[in-house]
Design brief:
By secondary structure, the protein is an alpha+beta fold. It has three domains: 12-151 and 332-350, ATPase, nucleotide binding domain (Nucleotidyltransferase, domain 5, 2-Layer Sandwich); 159-195 and 268-328, Nucleotidyltransferase, domain 5 (2-Layer Sandwich), CATH 3.30.420; 199-260, ATPase, substrate binding domain, subdomain 4 (Actin, Chain A, domain 4), CATH 3.90.640.10. The chain has helices spanning 64-67, 91-105, 126-138, 149-156, 197-212, 218-228, 262-266, 268-283, 286-295, 309-317, 330-339, 342-348, and strands spanning 24-28, 32-37, 41-47, 50-53, 59-62, 77-80, 83-84, 87-88, 115-120, 143-148, 167-172, 177-183, 186-193, 214-215, 239-246, 252-258, 297-300, 321-323, 349-350. Helix 4 (149-156) packs across helix 11 (330-339) and helix 5 (197-212) packs across helix 6 (218-228). The longest helix has 16 residues, at 197-212. The protein is flat, with a radius of gyration of 21 Å. The protein starts with 23 loop residues before the first strand and ends in a 5-residue tail after the last strand. The relative contact order is 0.16.
Length: 355
């Protein structure tokens, strides 16, 4: 984990904050943060972005409002993505963002500290665990549990993990993609690659810049990715108009992008994800390989929603590939269910001292 030493002055709206009330679960991602409250379900779904006033260090916006400011702020405001490639890149900013989110959802007139469950990558290090636990304790959590995100996603998708049966899940998030084989409540094999949804956005930005001499921002690139997809079937091509700044003239300009170009644009990212999947399959114990051949591969995460990606993976690995019912929510739903089942939580939680 990279923990930057950029310390931002604490804004007065966070002084004295303490997490109180019902137990919570958090899926803290590079692109999004989701919060589940016991008895209420998912109560927060917001971009992992905050905007800071550089003059006084106060929070100007968090979540969606901050994301809408990306690329549009004056010199007095800086927008920060505190998590990069699935890990904390700015400890202080992450802490302030989490405090702000939890302050929005905490019940009033409660005095007992909450239990907090946090989803983490399989290969989370000791330093990364300590950073997350420190943040949770700072906001007043009375107990903190860490759970591997692939395990949580399978639980959230109602796939049994307590049997001696192998299930393979691929989680394609904003900053990181992770493949894991799970059996008997634990991760048997896992691999990850820092290629996911945000790298797809950057590939679109770079392609449009080089081919069309047009400069576009991250939000526009994300809309292109969602609307045009990957590997459009022949005869079903789609087109999308986009606006940006002409690099030759400096003036606004509009072009039209074809979905048939998307495979060329995005190829490096799915190729890296596929390599990760193939390595994981090669490392799979033979006793579990038959289960995976029968059950196929489960996809989850925002990046997995890219149209055509499941078909591409299935053709390459020659296995069934299935999207879990709610790919964007699977992890936080699984973490939420663990709030209701102490025995299962004890079986799957990660020991803080191991890395």
């Amino acid at each position: 984990m990279t923990i930057a030493n950029l310390m931002l002055p604490c804004s007065k709206e966070l002084f004295g904050f303490k997490l109180t009330g019902k137990d919570l679960a958090i899926d803290l991602g590079t692109s999004k943060t989701l919060v589940y409250r016991r008895g209420s379900g998912v109560i927060l779904d917001a971009p992992s972005v905050l905007a800071i006033n550089k003059k006084n260090g106060r929070i100007r916006a968090v979540g969606l409002k901050a994301k809408q400011m990306l690329g549009k702020t004056p010199q007095t405001i800086v927008t920060i993505r505190p998590l990069q490639d699935g890990v904390i890149a700015n400890f202080d900013a992450t802490q302030r963002m989490v405090k702000y989110f939890l302050n929005q959802v905490r019940p009033r007139r409660t005095t007992v500290g909450s239990r907090l469950i946090i989803g983490v990558p399989c290969k989370v290090t000791k330093v990364e665990k300590r950073a997350l636990i420190d943040i949770a304790k700072e906001v007043g959590a009375r107990k903190v549990s860490l759970v591997a995100e692939p395990v949580a996603a399978l639980i959230g998708a109602d796939i049994p993990i307590f049997k001696p049966v192998g299930n393979m899940i691929v989680d394609i998030g904003g900053g990181t993609s992770e493949a894991a084989i799970v059996s008997l409540n634990g991760v048997v094999i896992s691999n990850s690659v820092r290629m996911a949804g945000e790298e797809m956005d950057q590939a679109i930005i770079q392609y449009v810049r080089e081919k069309y001499k047009l400069l576009i921002g991250e939000q526009r690139a994300e809309r292109i990715k969602i609307n045009l997809g990957y590997g459009c079937p022949k005869g079903k091509a789609k087109k999308m108009k986009m606006k940006g700044r002409d690099l030759n003239t400096g003036f606004p300009k509009e072009i039209e992008l074809d979905s048939e170009e998307m495979q060329e644009i995005l190829d490096p990212v799915p190729a890296a994800i596929l390599d990760m999947i193939e390595v994981t399959l090669e490392q799979c114990p033979p006793e579990l390989a038959g289960d995976i051949m029968e059950n196929g591969i489960y996809l989850t995460g925002g990046g997995a929603c890219l149209s055509g990606l499941d078909t591409y993976i299935s053709k390459r690995v020659k296995l069934p590939v299935k999207m879990v019912p709610e790919p964007l929510l699977a992890v936080v739903l699984g973490l939420g269910r663990l709030l209701e089942n102490d025995d299962l939580l004890s079986a799957v939680e990660i020991t803080p001292n191991t890395g």
